[in-house]
Design a protein that fits this description.
The structure holds 3 protein chains of 3 kinds.
Chain A (H helix, E strand, L loop, with lengths): L17 H6 L2 H18 L1 H4 L31 H37 L1 H16 L2 H12 L3 H28 L2 H8 L4 H37 L11 H8 L8 H28 L8
Chain B lengths: L1 H27 L5 H5 L6 H10 L6 H13 L5 E2 L4 E2 H36 L4 H15 L2 H15 L15 H35 L2 H8 L4 H22 L2 H15 L4 H11 L2 H29 L2 H4 L1
Antiparallel strand pairs in B: 1-2
Chain C lengths: L1 H19 L2 E6 L14 H10 L4 E3 L5 E3 L2 E6 L5 E6 L13 H13 L12 E8 L2 E6 L6 H5 L9 H7 L13 E7 L3 E6 L13 E6 L3 H9 L5 E2 L7 H5 L4 E7 L3 E6 L6 H4 L1 H4 L1 H9 L3 H9 L3 E3 L22 H11 L5 E7 L2 H15 L4 E7 L1 H10 L4 E6 L6 H8 L13 H12 L3 H18 L2 E14 L2 E2 L15 E2 L1
Parallel strand pairs in C: 1-10, 1-11, 15-16, 15-17
Antiparallel strand pairs in C: 2-3, 4-5, 5-7, 6-7, 8-9, 9-10, 11-18, 12-18, 13-17, 13-18, 14-18, 19-20
Helix pairs in contact in C: 10-12, 11-13, 16-17
Classes of the chains: A mainly alpha, B mainly alpha, C alpha+beta.
Chain lengths: 292, 314, 501
């Protein structure tokens, strides 16, 4: 989560459809494909799943993978494959919603800090520093415990914990763009501050925010799994990869398939988001374009 | 330089005040009465009442905060109600454990992250680049606890080679220490390797396109020499400073890893404390780590200024 | 290279040193709380106390009470005075003598120390007199049959008065008792180290020089450590790990049916909420709920068969099990009929469940089972600390809760079913039950007590403030080298007689 230095905004001259530039990078293209695949799986889970993810079968407890149950069954006889498919919903939702929460708080506050300056900026910046100084996961754990365990609350907790990075990022972008000639010109013409911020500053900060968001989704998916692993995320019987792992850890010795598939899914999805994020960063920064 | 330092330190104070308020209120507002949790299975009402008094739970939040801050300023972080031990003592007891884990993890991260970063910068756009970033991203993309579970499964359950819980006292024989620490350190280290790899890659790309590297190449120096001696040496400065800021990641990583491998360090201390509502411990540990993080930040800033005087101007 | 040799030889030396002195390494499922018998409150702490602190009485494999630190005892005919003869020649770890004054000091400490968790257990004790150096007389305000059982647990543990006075509240950091092992050190969440007390009064039964307790919460990890030879004994193995122990010739398994239970507490009167839910309001709905349960299947699925199905506060093999209320068979048709009779064919129930793996498994199995009778159960996962709070405030409909149990049945029923008792989360309150429970405490004759409990069971188990599910097996796994292990139903490891063969 921390320390991923986003690229400066791409100058308008280097414009070429972002998607095409992204797709020229094999790794990023692969990542995007996997993300889209998981998206489809999440949406079409009811059609794809061979069984009801909640249907228990007390006669088939912790059965190894077979033709009937491709990924085996879990501790109360549910089909692991069906649960992995449905679990994609929780993970994708958690990743996207929590980043939307971070963005919706972080961007306005960051703009305000960078744009208003002075005492407001000082106050916001110190608060951001304070939040950043508390380890991300600890903050999320405390918040999730405070709100009570549920998927929604986990998303809120992750979203809030990840907000300071977006505040800092937006503020930095706002600060650097504020001094540019065209912004000064826009203000001189008499445009109100908020309008300049929205029309001119924000679009320029967008590339950096997009990159950070993609990487933050990856981190948020891991965070959701971590909270679920501690029993603070998705609640039973609904499936999430993290909560599946939480149960699976009790059966590592005799039902390893319960741990392998959800973990592998998290890994693939997070890896893909990371690849897309890295690809986006490269694509948006002309200095790093291959052959440039 | 002195004014710069003074200014930076002046900023630290309000940040710490915010940290203390934040963690205090978040912790104290958690649902669940710590006195009830502490009173144990029997939950004798007399004991609950006694504990409430002892923990000042009937006072208003502001009063409790003032009491806590007063203690902290006098060097007293309070006492763990669950373990009946001073928090400062607990921190000093757990610190070496987590530091040892962190140091090993950092070593692993450096060993993977920097070569991978150099390789992918030098062979940009080739299969090598992809392979290197895959290796680095593998760590960042795997949930720590899952990797931990898999390692326990493979090494302890299936192969029966190693003890499953990672902690071995530093005083025990070296082989045992390595056997115990290797896996948790790998788990945490690989996650940081990715971040280091990213830093290394971008720093190297920047340096490789700079004038003096071009000059060095023009002089006809062998490529490995250019890369390692000239470019990497210069790129290392930002890498190391940025690496130092990975403390937060290290700690977050340690939280679940310590849980999975049952290592009695900081991470385990704090997670157990959150669930047991052991307020003083949570507050003390977070305050301590936040202070350490801020101090490291400050050091990194100062190091930057010392290395590159241009920064002072802005 | 030379360094390597040095390190290797140092390692060898350490190993050789360790071979001479025998250490028993025990893996615990949790980190114990404070090691002060007066303040202690966790089950796991009692496992450590079993080696550290002797008690006035002990219980044996048949749950009978036997003297430990007392040589003999005598009840007065009116059952209001208990006279104890203190065992001669017992000393505390600091060399102080155990005498009548020390016993009085300890009982007074249990009763008066601020924050004492023993006060409630010893409430009927009015005063303690020192008759002579070896004789103590305990005066009760009313006859109290469970007293000996209390004195066979933490309330009967004796600590050194000298050390207790010197350390005060901090005594638990460096406890001084009279058990077979004395305290060496404790690193929180990591280890507790005890060493053999050479002057122990039954010293020839002690065959280890050291015991190290290592808290390792994850059962799989505990077992893996045992298999890797890092531990000699692990307590509370997960049932799903049993096959692994059986398949390993170097390991042995011991099972004990616990004295506690796993159950579902139903809010029948803790708050107004009780009247707002069909389950809390109508005993017929609760009966339907119980009839919809297949306890054998629950035990198979949730516990891998490692539990004894039960419908009472004590297990069916306990001498105090009320035979007039046998284990009901699952009867979904009857459950449906009862729900129809109550006018709620599909009652909605919110089941509050702590986030522990066991509780969540039970909740999901129960949810699926009672659905067949028409119940619509929603699982509300709640962090344990929060769940206690909600239970205390009566903000729950049904709550998955276990009790670790006490040797005397009184400890499993009084606090839960008598009006306004602290553990009565159900909010159950019936004067005739209170009367019966109070009477059961005055009866010392087991047959009479059994009859009293049968009367209690006839009422309480029909009202169902708690639906009991099963009694877990305490599963111990240990190296085959270990001999002399005794399985006592309280699940505590007795170290007397333990040895490597």
């Amino acid at each position: 989560m921390a320390g991923s230095a986003p690229a400066p905004a791409a100058p308008a001259s280097a414009r070429e459809p972002l998607l095409r530039r992204l797709l020229t990078r094999r790794a990023a293209a692969f990542g995007l494909a996997v993300v889209v695949l998981f998206g489809v799986v999440a949406l079409a889970a009811p059609l794809l799943a061979p069984a009801d993810p909640l249907a228990t079968s007390f006669g088939a407890i912790r059965k190894a993978p077979s033709a009937a149950h491709w990924m085996g069954t879990d501790e109360i006889g549910r089909d692991v494959f069906a649960r992995v498919l449905f679990g994609a919903r929780a993970s994708l939702l958690a990743g996207i919603v929590s980043v939307l929460i971070s963005l919706s708080i972080g961007v306005p506050v960051g703009l305000l800090a960078g744009y208003a300056g002075g005492l407001t900026d000082q106050l916001i910046s110190r608060l951001t520093d304070a939040l950043l100084a508390c380890p991300f996961l600890i903050l999320a754990i405390a918040l999730a415990a405070f709100l009570g365990p549920s998927l929604t609350n986990a998303m809120i907790a992750i979203g809030i914990s990840a907000t300071p990075i977006f505040i800092r990022l937006t503020r930095g972008q706002a600060l650097s763009i504020k001094a540019e000639d065209y912004i000064l010109a826009a203000r001189a013409v008499g445009n109100p501050g908020w309008r300049v911020a929205l029309r001119h500053v924000l679009p320029n900060a967008a590339p950096a925010l997009i990159v950070q968001s993609t990487l933050a989704i990856a981190a948020a998916i891991i965070a959701e799994a971590s909270l679920s692993f501690l029993g603070l995320g998705q609640q039973p019987p609904a499936p999430s990869w993290g909560s599946m792992l939480n149960t699976a850890k009790n059966y590592v010795g005799n039902a390893p398939w319960m741990a392998v598939w959800p973990g592998l899914s998290i890994f693939l999805l997070v890896l893909s988001f990371n690849l897309v994020g890295d690809g986006l960063r490269d694509a948006l920064d002309p200095r790093r374009t291959p052959g440039a | 330089m002195l004014t710069f330092l003074a200014r930076r330190i002046a900023i630290v104070v309000p940040t710490l005040v915010f940290v203390s308020m934040l963690i205090f209120s978040l912790q104290q507002l958690l649902p669940g009465d710590p006195a009830v949790v502490l009173a144990g299975e029997d939950r004798d009402p007399a004991v609950v009442a006694y504990l409430r008094g002892k923990l000042h739970l009937d006072e208003p939040l502001a009063v409790r905060y003032a009491l806590w801050v007063k203690g902290v300023l006098q060097g007293d972080l309070g006492e763990s109600q669950r373990m009946q031990k001073p928090v400062l003592g607990l921190i000093l007891e757990k610190l070496p454990v987590t530091l040892e884990l962190a140091a090993l993890a950092m070593a692993i991260a450096l060993c993977i992250g920097i070569p991978a970063g150099v390789l992918s910068a030098v062979r940009r756009g080739t299969a090598w680049d992809y392979a290197a970033s895959m290796v680095a991203l593998w760590g960042l993309s795997t949930p720590n606890f899952w990797l931990g579970i898999l390692m326990i499964l493979l090494f302890s359950v299936t192969l029966g080679w190693l003890p499953a819980s990672g902690y071995v006292s530093p005083f025990e024989p070296a082989r045992a220490t390595l056997a115990g620490w290797g896996r948790p350190a790998c788990v945490v280290g690989t996650a940081i390797a990715a971040v280091l790899m990213r830093h290394t890659r971008s720093a190297m790309l920047q340096v490789l396109s700079s004038d003096y590297v071009r000059t060095a190449r023009a002089k006809g120096l062998a490529e490995p020499r250019v890369v390692l001696l000239h470019a990497l040496r210069n790129a290392l400065i930002p890498i190391v400073t940025l690496g130092a800021l990975e403390l937060g990641t290290l700690l977050s990583g340690a939280v679940l890893t310590e849980q999975v491998f049952t290592i009695p360090g900081f991470g385990k201390l704090i997670v157990d404390a959150v669930f047991n509502r052991d307020y003083a411990v949570v507050q003390g540990v977070v305050l301590f780590t936040a202070t350490a993080y801020i101090a490291l930040n400050l050091l990194a800033d100062v190091a930057y200024v010392l290395i590159d005087p241009r920064i002072r101007v802005s | 290279m030379r360094r390597c040799i040095l390190v290797a030889s140092a390692a060898l030396c350490l190993l050789a040193g360790a071979a001479g002195a025998q250490t028993l390494r025990i893996g615990l499922a949790e980190d114990p709380d404070v090691l002060d018998p007066t303040l202690a409150r966790s089950f796991v702490g009692r496992i450590v106390f079993a080696a550290l602190c002797d008690k006035l009485f002990d219980i044996d494999a048949k749950l009978d009470i036997v003297p430990q630190l007392v040589a003999s005892y005598e009840w007065s005919p009116d059952s209001k005075t208990l006279t104890l003869k203190v065992r001669p020649g017992v000393t505390f770890h600091d060399g102080e003598k155990l005498d009548a004054a020390a016993v009085k000091f300890n009982l007074d400490r249990h009763k008066t120390m601020p924050g004492s968790n023993r006060r409630g257990e010893l409430a009927p004790i009015a005063s303690v007199d020192v008759v002579d150096a070896a004789t103590v007389r305990i005066n009760l305000s009313a006859p109290f049959a469970p007293l000996l059982a209390q004195l066979a647990d933490r309330a009967g543990m004796m600590v050194s008065p000298k050390a207790a006075q010197a350390e005060g509240e901090r005594f638990g950091a460096k406890p001084v008792c009279s058990g077979p092992f004395r305290f060496v050190e404790r690193i929180a969440q990591d280890r507790i180290v005890l060493e053999r007390y050479p002057a122990y009064w039954r010293r020839d039964e002690i065959h280890f020089d050291r015991i190290v307790y290592l808290p390792i919460p994850d059962s799989t990890v505990r077992l893996a450590n045992l298999r890797a030879g890092q531990l000699d004994f692990v307590e509370r193995l997960a049932a799903s790990d049993v096959p692994q122990v059986h398949s390993d010739a170097r390991l042995r398994l011991a099972k004990i049916t616990e004295i506690g239970y796993q159950g579902i507490t139903i809010n029948v009167g803790k708050s107004e909420l009780a009247q707002k839910t069909a389950l809390g309001r109508d005993p017929r709905v609760r009966e339907a709920f119980e009839l919809a349960l297949d306890r054998d299947a629950i035990v198979q699925v949730a516990m891998d068969g490692e539990a004894l199905p039960g419908n009472q506060w004590v297990a069916p093999d306990n001498p105090f099990y009320a035979k007039n209320v046998p284990l009901p068979k699952r009867d979904v048709a009857r459950a449906r009929a009862l729900l129809a009779e109550a006018g709620v064919p599909n009652p909605a129930v919110t089941l509050m469940t702590p986030t522990t793996a066991d509780a969540q498994r039970i909740a999901q199995v129960v949810q699926a089972m009672v659905k067949e009778a028409g119940f619509d159960v929603k699982i509300q996962s709640t962090e344990f600390a929060t769940s206690l709070d909600l239970a205390d405030k009566g903000q729950f409909e049904a709550y998955v809760l276990a009790w670790s149990g006490r040797a005397d049945p009184d400890g499993n029923v009084f606090s839960f079913d008598a009006c306004r008792q602290p553990l009565n989360y159900a909010g159950y309150c019936k004067p005739e039950v209170d009367e019966l429970l109070a009477r059961s405490r005055t009866l010392r004759d087991p047959a009479e007590r059994r009859r009293a409990f049968e009367q209690v069971a006839a009422i309480v188990l029909k009202d169902r403030p708690i639906v009991y599910l099963y009694h877990r097996n305490w599963l111990w796994a240990y190296t085959a080298k270990l001999g002399g292990l005794r399985t006592i139903p309280d699940g505590l490891v007795r170290v007397q007689g333990l040895q490597f063969q």
